[in-house]
Specification:
The chain is of the alpha/beta class and 358 residues long. It is built from 12 helices and 11 strands. The strands form 2 sheets. It has a 6-stranded mixed β-sheet, sandwiched between helices. It binds 5'-O-[(R)-(carboxyoxy)(hydroxy)phosphoryl]adenosine and zinc ion. One of its GO terms (biological process) is tRNA threonylcarbamoyladenosine modification.
């Protein structure tokens, strides 16, 4: 195996994106993504069984497409990497099964890695000429997660500072969009609806931000109370026969989510003396989140990094990039007995042996 500049194929299937990425060291060669998002639209959220079936259908063609785009052969690969958790069990199993089959048939080493740490690894592929230093705080926000991490070393030391205790941030966007009669996925819809609205029109609650919550949940998030507050506000307006000011509700809701996300992330930077913040996950597409994060990071003297959007949403390139880092750091391959683990903790950057997770 070439450990200097390894050619790695990465498979990501933890949620509704079948992502295949190929990297050589820190260079991105291909990043194909097939999403089953449209199939979930009528349910208003990702349906695990539907996602797993879609992965099964997309897996083979996606691998072929990524190989063709990268212009490499299976023989040339140095390793096969896969997300083994956290995520939806059935969805993960499709990717893990495919990766094991590829590793077995090609005789290449197999690396089972952590999805959340992969989001951080995505940044390695986009150094824009300036390698990003560690430690860094990472805020990962998507339909499936809202996690605040302290990354001291990408391949050796990642700590979970906090996460959502109920809904993920993207999930909150999706649920509130539904309340406002907007289609799934709700994030882009709310972002658009909020454009002409007044973010100060309604003061929606900031979850886990009161002094009494901050002691035990300084870096944790909660969005279900906010969603309920929006639902009540809309109901009250409708009961009173008023027209619901969608733009104001969307802008005020978006402001509440963004305020909490950025406040807690910058607090972590300040408390821990870490002058770097990395953003990842699909919610990073949010125009207001990018704006507020940029403003407050600058004010706090924190360097802000946001990888290009195609590397922020779930993708296989980030998994390949993380595995390439592990290989370059001399880490040994995972056992082919590794299972999918829906609740894999972020401290397990690579799963080396069979785990008892679900
Ligand atoms: O990372 P991602 O593509 O994957 C999964 O969660 O699987 O994130 C999707 C989430 C959805 O909940 C979607 O509503 C949200 O990201 N999202 C946004 C925006 N674009 C996508 N949320 C807020 N504002 C946006 N512009
Ligand atoms: Zn993700």
């Amino acid at each position: 195996m070439n450990r200097e500049n390894p050619l790695v194929l990465g498979i990501e299937s933890s949620c509704d994106e079948t992502g295949i990425g190929i990297v050589r060291g820190t260079t991105l060669l291909s990043n194909t993504i097939a999403s089953s998002m449209d199939e979930h639209a009528r349910y208003g959220g990702v349906v695990p069984e539907v996602a797993a079936r879609a992965h099964l259908e997309a897996m083979g063609p996606s691998i072929e497409a990524a190989m063709t785009e990268a212009g490499v052969t299976f023989e040339e690969l140095d390793a096969i990497a896969v997300t083994s958790g956290p995520g939806l069990s059935g969805a993960l199993m499709v990717g893990v099964g495919a990766a094991k089959a590829l590793a077995l048939s090609t005789g290449k080493p197999f690396y089972a890695v952590n999805h959340l740490v992969g989001h951080v690894g995505a940044d390695i592929l986009d150094t824009r000429g300036e390698p990003f230093d560690y430690p860094t705080i990472a805020l990962l926000v998507s339909g499936g997660h809202t996690s605040l991490l302290l990354v001291r070393d990408l391949v050796g030391d990642v700590e979970l500072l906090g996460e959502t205790i109920d809904d993920a941030a993207g999930e909150a966007f999706d649920k509130v969009a539904r309340i406002l009669g907007l289609p799934y996925p709700g994030g882009p819809q709310i972002d658009r609806a909020a454009e002409g609205g007044n973010p100060a029109a309604i003061r929606f609650p900031r979850g886990l931000s009161l002094p009494k919550d901050m002691a035990a949940h300084r870096y944790d998030f909660s969005f279900s109370g906010l969603k309920t507050a929006v639902a009540r506000w809309v109901e009250r307006a409708e009961d009173a026969g008023e027209e619901v000011p969608i733009a104001d509700v969307a802008a005020s809701f978006r402001e509440a989510v963004v305020d909490v996300l950025v406040t807690k992330a910058i607090n972590a930077c300040k408390d821990l003396g870490v002058p770097r913040l990395l953003l990842g996950g699909g919610v990073v597409a949010n125009a207001r989140l990018r704006e507020v994060a940029a403003e407050r990071a600058a004010a706090a003297g924190v360097a802000l990094r946001i990888p290009p959007f195609s590397l922020c949403t779930d993708n296989g390139a980030m998994i390949a990039a993380l595995a390439a880092q592990l290989i370059m750091a001399g880490k040994e391959p995972s056992s082919l007995g590794v299972a999918a683990d829906s609740t894999l903790p972020v401290t397990e950057i690579q799963v080396a042996e069979l785990t008892t997770g679900s």
